[in-house]
Amino acid sequence: xxxxxxxxxxxxxxxxxxxxxxxxxxxxxxxxxxxxxxxxxxxxxxxxxxxxxxxxxxxxxxxxxxxxxxxxxxxxxxxxxxxxxxxxxxxxxxxxxxxxxxxxxxxxxxxxxxxxxxxxxxxxxxxxxxxxxxxxxxxxxxxxxxxxxxxxxxxxxxxxxxxxxxxxxxxxxxxxxxxxxxxxxxxxxxxxxxxxxxxxxxxxxxxxxxxxxxxxxxxxxxxxxxxxxxxxxxxxxxxxxxxxxxxxxxxxxxxxxxxxxxxxxxxxxxxxxxxxxxxxxxxxxxxxxxxxxxxxxxxxxxxxxxxxxxxxxxxxxxxxxxxxxxxxxxxxxxxxxxxxxxxxxxxxxxxxxxxxxxxxxxxxxxxxxxxxxxxxxxxxxxxxxxxxxxxxxx
Length: 394
Hints:
By secondary structure, this protein is α+β, with helices and mostly antiparallel strands. It has helices at 2-9, 22-31, 56-62, 76-85, 87-104, 117-129, 141-154, 328-344; strands at 12-18, 36-43, 46-52, 67-74, 106-107, 109-113, 136-137, 159-167, 170-177, 190-194, 198-207, 209-210, 217-218, 223-226, 228-231, 234-238, 242-258, 260-278, 281-286, 294-303, 309-325, 352-363, 367-379, 381-385. Strand 2 (36-43) and strand 3 (46-52) form a beta hairpin. The N and C termini lie far apart (125 Å).
């Protein structure tokens, strides 16, 4: 088997020999131990033979009056000749791959998606200060995350949320402007009232008179900070009341959690890889870091209709396979965590969960259904205009 493979790669030449009495030359070749691999006669003056390339010079030394033409090659010599004749093409392919690799790692455009021109200009400056601009080298996912967090932290008064995503050879930057509470100057007289039924836990009045006490139960629309300023039960003035009221509010949240839980999630890591598909094998050529589990989008760069290989560019996103088999207690515990996250997602920074309690646990065939009661400290501030009555004397 090994000898057969080696024989295929041994260099051989096929020669056309013409002249009078070519049999005499053939006999000389045998006499000088030049091995003839193939021999055929075209006519009585012409013969075509195949010999090893190493014996070619010895034959040329014996040819004397005969005319010898090279008509074919085989084995390694043929491969070398093809490489020599195709070296420009191969060089172009290599340069093409190098150019492709370079171009795929360079950013040619930065697109900031927002209508506010001042915010766009601010982001352009912040990105340039951190090495992100046109014709810059692509940053890694970790570097982009750090830059995003740094810009958001530096501009907390202007930026609520920011994302930087590499799309091909450009960065797409999405941003949400922080909405600052504007103090509205108004001449309207108003009360601060409860937005929903609750037990009062904290009242902060900047203007107006507090008419409810901490731990009082209030219903929707009840006045907590009055715009009417009283002295000895008599209204002395009416202003536009302002402040914040926080109350204890109650919610029921229902969630389900399966006993068998399977999920494929993205870790956030991604890379551009170049792979070679050879027969049924996929070989990653670059980079060396190979994800154990990944989501892949691939595009073909090079293939051959007769040879079993193809060259691909892949966008790889690392994934984690989550595979859980939960007991009843584990499923309940995870359902409680899910319910708490669901509740917290609806609260602001100043609002918080005071307590939670499971109201009902229903065990079904493949899942747990859980109903949770939450006590929440919530901003229940709302406003109500004061309508002044005009009393006309008769």
